[in-house]
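Sample pair:
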Amino acid sequence: MLEEYDLAIVLGSQVKKRDNRYFLAPHTELKARAAGIAYQRGVVKKFIISGGYNFGVRYDYSRILENPNFSFEAFALARWEKSEAQIIAEFLHEEYNVPLQDMLLEELSSTTEENVEFLKILLKRKTFNFAKRIGVLTLLPHMERALPLFKRANLNVKPIFAEELLVLEKYGVDKICEFYSIPSDKEAERMKRIEELISKCKELAQRFCSL
């Protein structure tokens, strides 16, 4: 049985743009779909979607930049595009019917470190007095890097692994297999790899909670 959360923080990541249409990079879509599943199943009541204006800063319209541009000019121009948080929220609203009033956007951060710093400030508001149990939602590889940052910031959050939510739906299993390059034509191998992946999620959660 899945644990329930008053509030979940969805950590942003790469988004793309083609023909004036914004869409999510594959790894970002996995997190967004996991958030949608969590909402539909009553696992999460409300979200903070964290992710700033990063076109021309962290990536261009299709690829991640080898050398990020954190200049004043790059940030000024990036503001004229949509933020990661807005594109994720629009996806959740359109694909999973998550009400707009259940998603608060943090649109300033450009790195995971900044996600944590801005969230630390934001969560001090009385707005979040209702949130007794807060989770942070992302994929396992990102979670390994993010959790120590939340710990050092003294933010009392619990990990919510996108993988553990995605496996609850058939399309989610297919998406995981695609993302992690797990062969889809060999059912036994597929299930074994997925079980190993979920086991790694549980091990990381246990290590974090024991610190």
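The chain has a mean pLDDT of 94.
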